[in-house]
Amino acid sequence: MRETLATTSSSSSSSSTETNVIPPAEAAWVTTYERLSPRWKSFVLPSQSAIPIVISRVNQVDAARLDVEMSAMLKEQLVKVFSVMKPGLLFQYEAELDAFLEFLIWRFSIWVDKPTPGNALMNLRYRDEHAMTTRGEIRTGLEGPGLTIAQKIWYCVATVGGQYIWTRLQSFFAFRRGADSNQRSAGHRAWFIIQRIEGFYKAASFTNLLIFLYSGRYRNLIERALGARLVYGSPHMNRAVSFEYMNRQLVWNEFSEMLLLLLPILNSSSMKNLFRPFSKDKSSGSEGDDTLCPICKASPTIPYVALPCHHRYCYYCLSTRCAATTTFRCSKCSEPVVAMQHGSIVN
């Protein structure tokens, strides 16, 4: 009996000591961390996986400008091909020509997952922003799939088809609003609706421009509606700008402006008289045929003489020279011409 009581007391004392043992605080922290770590990662990872990237706004605007210039260059070359045809033929189909060129650029760039010429020069490509999800390790923030087939088709419909339809609607209601009152009123109402739609579109485009300048995403409404964002094609490619073409264009522009300024002076008789003493043929003025006009070298149809030297000229040749400069000198004797008179009788 005593042994049983001793055993019972010893077991109760050992159980009480086991229940009174408290695990270390460090082990509790480890257990709690292991239990809550998966939940914490599930909440924190999506917000940290999307690396914020900043695409240069200047690059995006320059890319759009380069695409416009490329389309203009293709149009200029195509117009030269039809230059020998009937004048004004391409003017009637200018909208179709622009749509065809835009379709060609879209077909050989966006449709085949390649950047447009302007985007390629600026190291940009389109990315489907709607499909950007958490996908493992993200190194640069520029990864992501390209546009889907539906996005490519809608891009073509909006840019090529939308621009063509809008141009044709404007030309139709601008020039064919009807002759009678009923058709005229219907045409005015349709034209008023078109102008209102255009006004709303411009206001939305202006709002999108302000948002683009602030955030640097989506240059136009079409890109924003489709979720087509421009990102860098290569993260390690620097923007290389060559100013050789620009310098050449500036030099030729300045040279052409200088020629346009100097040609009227070089063609005037005063400059000819200035360089006449340095000419090899010094006796041409005295030994020339007096019956020919010194300017056009033809027989004067309406002969007029210059006073006071009485050399014969064509009326139009002499009058234009006298009207062009007040100090016109005779092309034969270099004497200032003060007046002109009919040359039927030469004194």
TrEMBL record:
Top-level taxon of the source organism: Eukaryota
- Name the Gene Ontology molecular function terms of this record: transferase activity; zinc ion binding
Q: Got a GO cellular component term for this one? A: peroxisomal membrane
Q: Name one GO biological process term.
A: protein import into peroxisome matrix
- Which residue numbers delimit the RING-type domain? 293-334
Q: Where in the cell is it found?
A: Peroxisome membrane
**Pathway, per Swiss-Prot/TrEMBL?**
Protein modification; protein ubiquitination
What Pfam families does the record tag this protein with? Pex2_Pex12
Q: Which keywords annotate this record?
A: Membrane, Metal-binding, Peroxisome, Protein transport, Transferase, Transmembrane, Transmembrane helix, Transport, Ubl conjugation pathway, Zinc, Zinc-finger
The family database entries (SUPFAM superfamilies) matched by this protein are listed as: RING/U-box (SSF57850)
Membrane topology field? Multi-pass membrane protein
What's this protein's family per the entry? Belongs to the pex2/pex10/pex12 family.
UniProt-recorded name of the protein = RING-type domain-containing protein
Its lineage reads: Eukaryota, Viridiplantae, Streptophyta, Embryophyta, Tracheophyta
